[in-house]
Amino acid sequence: MSTRRLAKTLYRKLLREAEKLPSYNFRMYAGRKIRETFRENKTINDFDKIDAQIEVARQSLEMLRRQAIIGHLYSAEKLVIERKKTLSHAED
């Protein structure tokens, strides 16, 4: 697999895994951090540095997977911003 394709695949996997985090704040932070980090590393041309960053992304993916599992074990009530409005509440 080409380096560019591997980076895109890791990027998508990281974003999908971040969406699984139960905490709204952690979910939003993880998404922002992933996008920002990939944007910063977009211009790297040295293959050794690219390989190092890909390894960091793989480790981050595993960490996100573990955090999502742990987060679901100890889930808390959803924040107001996460709650969906229902039609019955909108009519009141």
TrEMBL record:
<comment type="similarity">
    <text>Belongs to the complex I LYR family.</text>
</comment>
<dbReference type="InterPro" id="IPR045297">
    <property type="entry name" value="Complex1_LYR_LYRM4"/>
</dbReference>
<dbReference type="InterPro" id="IPR051522">
    <property type="entry name" value="ISC_assembly_LYR"/>
</dbReference>
<dbReference type="InterPro" id="IPR008011">
    <property type="entry name" value="Complex1_LYR_dom"/>
</dbReference>
<feature type="domain" description="Complex 1 LYR protein">
    <location>
        <begin position="9"/>
        <end position="63"/>
    </location>
</feature>
<dbReference type="Pfam" id="PF05347">
    <property type="entry name" value="Complex1_LYR"/>
</dbReference>
<dbReference type="GO" id="GO:1990221">
    <property type="term" value="C:L-cysteine desulfurase complex"/>
</dbReference>
<protein>
    <recommendedName>
        <fullName>Complex 1 LYR protein domain-containing protein</fullName>
    </recommendedName>
</protein>
<dbReference type="GO" id="GO:0005739">
    <property type="term" value="C:mitochondrion"/>
</dbReference>
<dbReference type="GO" id="GO:0016226">
    <property type="term" value="P:iron-sulfur cluster assembly"/>
</dbReference>
